[in-house]
Amino acid sequence: MRNFGYFEEGYSPSLSDKGLWRRIFAYLKPFLLPFFGAVLLSLFVTASALGLPWLMQQGIDLYITDPSQSFDLRMAGLGKIAMAYGGLICIGFVTAFLQVLVLEWIGQSIMYRLRQDLFNHLLQVSMTFFSKQPVGRLVTRLTNDVQNMHEMFTSIMVTLFNDLLRMACILCLLVYMNLRLGLILCLFVPLAAVVTILFSKLARQQFRAIRKQISRLNAFIQESVSGVTLVQLFGRTSDMKREFAELNNDYLSKTLRQIKLFGAFMPLTELMSSLAIAIILWYGGGEIIRQQLSLGELVAFLSYMRLFFQPLRELSQKYSIVQSALASAERIFHLLDSESAEEETGPGADPEKPLSLTGDLCFNHIHFGYNPEQPVLHDISFTIKKGETVAIVGSTGSGKSTLINLMLRFYGPDSGTITLAGLPLPNIAREELRREIGVVMQEMMILQDTLLKNIVLDTQKKRSEVTALLEQAQLTEFVSSLPQGLDTIIGEGGREISTGEKQLLAIARVLCRNPSLLVLDEASSAIDSKTEKLLEQPLEHCFQEKTVLIIAHRLSTIQRADRIIVLDGGRIIEQGTHAELLANSGMYSELIALDFGAAPHLPA
Length: 604
Prior knowledge:
This protein is α/β, with parallel strands linked by helices. It has helices spanning 17-28, 32-64, 71-122, 127-132, 135-177, 179-186, 188-226, 228-233, 237-289, 295-336, 400-407, 430-436, 451-456, 463-472, 476-480, 499-513, 529-543, 578-584, 587-596; strands spanning 361-368, 377-384, 389-393, 415-420, 423-424, 437-441, 449-450, 489-490, 517-521, 547-552, 563-568, 571-576.
């Protein structure tokens, strides 16, 4: 198990709050019209809410406390007030309902686009990036972090606008109703602002810590579950339990610190609200006794006070969502800003002129290392002529598969050049290059689909064409052995196929693409000799009129090669035909002896 799998990268946020909001609003820009519609609806929501205390004041002052009118007139007036009150509640309900629908549609659309951008970017980043990033951390970005931003887009952005608008309107109404009482409330506004700003800064720090810990947990769980066989086989269960308990406890402690922060903010806001109400009751009650203020005005004033402090009381929850979303946004944009793979074509390519990639493959003085401090290849130079079959052999870690990674442009050499048909690889679009190079690997991806779809992939071949190719490669016996032939569902949830059958499937895929350059990367290292014999005829069909590069541990698979290159420690130490290398009694002879026992002299 890799230790770095659950340790979050130590990066510092590259975006300021201003830059972060600019990136967020860029995703909102295509939905500005419906967003402003939601803002317009918020005006109706706010107006209906602020109209309710005013109706209460009218009912108290005009009808309940006015003895000059008859009972019937007072009750009729209260009935009208009650109907108007109910009407405002209905207006608030309908407009709030429509606002939620609009915001949910906006939020879901933005999340779709953001998730799509993240996934598309991940498919384009360089292989170096994936070698440094645990899968669990990337899954967290696409799931948890995107979901954390959903609530902010759907409710918080307009809700905060509603609350700010409501608080501003209430302040104006209170000052208009009674200047002295309004000024008393204004004294609490700076205090509330200071508390809110302080809370926002502390909350952001806590949510950054929580997001890091979630990434660590997800990465650790992903690695533990995917490697559960090794965990049980080597008795690592207790160690894994202990490590997960430590990570889980760290997450718990960080979450509890966040809860303590919110727990302090909420009572402080409630204390300010209660203190303001107590002062208003004391001062407003005195004004009623002196007949400078009506009872209805005091009731309305207290109702407006409650409405004013309600958003502040809820601000802890809203800020928890906003700060969590901003912490997630930092990490999402950090991932989106990560380095992509090199451009599709270099400056020397002519996109309007079709390329001819049938020709020699040349490695010229290649130096490369996955880690710059630990080079893997040292001054590698060789040429594979058109139509030639070349095998590359060597012990594990000698750099054989690295050559394939460079050839397919998963990585770029640190120095030196690789050319195909006289063109440097950076001047060839990756898709075009990979269509021209067919790779049969030991490990392969199987889609949960029919065998036909697994063979055809992106080539758009028809069933009749696939059937003809299978007959040419003598793979019809393999297909006929399946329950539904080409329509058999394979992969997860379908029929499991053996290692040898997977290799036959890989060969069929290569035949569909009809590449000019064929690469066999340890294609038969995981199968037995009987299965290997079954593969001989399909492989020989693939070799016809093609340039072939064979990477192999098992030296029995390279007897057909025109030339053999021996690698050791990332350097070419021998090359020649099978007979020539045996005659040299060098490393190749030793490998043959190890592979076949004490009799290295095999027929050439």
